[in-house]
Design a protein that fits this description.
Elements lengths: L4 H11 L3 E5 L5 H15 L2 E8 L17 H20 L5 E7 L2 H12 L3 E5 L5 H15 L6 E4 L1 H4 L9 H4 L3 E5 L7 H14 L2 E8 L1 H4 L4 H14 L11 E7 L2 H11 L4 E6 L11 H8 L4 E5 L22
Parallel strand pairs: 1-2, 1-4, 2-3, 4-5, 6-7, 6-9, 7-8, 9-10
Antiparallel strand pairs: 5-10
Helix pairs in contact: 1-8, 4-5, 11-12
Length: 325
């Protein structure tokens, strides 16, 4: 599959969304809002700030000592904080509305995506409260198995933690994008999204394929690396047809380590991950989770879908595969 306007039209609106949903825990606005403003301006998008109020049965044990929970006050307090955050966004000339729902996080966010028709979700993957730190990564993964829009995830390495919360300016408007490609897997939509994002922002795109080191050493390692490099180059159209530079890299090693190493080497501002569907209970062991948790830049995770048979690399040609999952 070579990148062309014809085979990427489905992801173009995802690269330049017209409606952005921001899932906020109300403490992450200082590092999420700069990304929201930059992306909304880049595509003239409207924004919805959304907060999920946990169901009563998910409150911590010590909450049982509270004789009465004033739900109306909770809603008023949440709305007040959301409106204050929205005011910062509106001051940049962006249409912004607020919404909230009491439900389980992933269910509520899915419902809000359906209600608003949003075509990008922005969220943090690690909150500042201990409970949020454990839960948000799992919520992001569950959403990947349920929604069909890109999730722009800002992990702790991308905002520097509680003491240094302002994102790096280069991460807000990307100049370098890294896309690890799982050749032979369901890679088409991820590749198209990466190309479309690079075109939207005029950013340099690096395509990376990581060979499993055990497979690489079995037979003729040089041939396997050459195969991977040729396969990546086959995805790229002639230079005269592009408005942005593309680099291809093939290597072998631990997948997470190599992705992070390539992100540093290319000074990546965003990493675009095409993610195969993974089981909810395996997420904390998955490549996507580990990259999100360790990357020093935001990650756009996008659930791949099966490619048509004629668009996949033939089975006999992808026995030297690397995996994003």
């Amino acid at each position: 599959m070579k990148y062309t306007a014809e085979n990427c039209f489905q992801t173009r609106v995802l690269a330049a969304p017209d409606h952005i949903l921001v899932a906020t825990d109300l403490t992450d606005g200082d590092y999420l809002i700069p990304h929201v403003v930059a992306q909304a301006k880049a595509s003239n998008a409207r924004v919805t700030l959304f907060h999920v109020i946990p169901p009563n049965d998910t409150l911590p044990m010590e909450a049982a000592a509270i004789p009465y929970i004033d739900q109306s006050k909770i809603y008023l307090d949440v709305r007040s904080i959301l409106e204050e955050m929205a005011g910062v966004i509106k001051a940049q000339g962006i249409f912004c509305e607020v919404s909230m729902r009491q439900d389980y996080a992933a269910d509520a966010i899915c419902a809000e995506i359906g209600k608003t028709g949003a075509n990008r979700l922005i969220m943090g993957t690690h909150g500042r409260r201990k409970l949020a730190q454990m839960a948000l990564g799992s919520v992001a993964n569950e959403l990947l198995t349920r929604v069909d829009i890109p999730i722009f995830a800002v992990g702790p390495g991308a905002h520097g933690g509680a003491e240094h919360v302002i994102p790096q300016p280069e991460h807000v408007t990307p100049k370098n994008i890294l896309h690890p490609v799982a050749l032979g897997r369901e890679y088409k939509r991820g590749v198209c999204l990466a190309f479309d994002l690079a075109q939207t922002y005029g950013a340099k795109l690096t395509l990376l394929h990581v060979l499993d080191p055990d497979l690489r050493e079995q037979i003729n390692p040089e041939r396997k690396l050459a195969w991977a490099e040729n396969a990546l180059r086959a995805l790229v159209p002639p230079a005269e047809e592009l408005r942005f530079p593309v680099e291809t890299r093939a290597t072998s090693g631990d997948l997470v380590e190599e992705v992070l190493r390539a992100a540093r080497a290319t000074t990546a501002d965003w990493i675009v991950l095409g993610v195969d569907e993974v089981a909810y209970w395996r997420f904390r062991d998955s490549t996507a989770y580990k990259v999100m948790a360790a990357a020093n830049c935001p990650v756009i995770a996008f659930r791949n879908e099966p490619c048509h048979k004629e668009e996949t690399i033939r089975k006999e040609d992808h026995r030297f595969d690397g995996v994003i999952a």
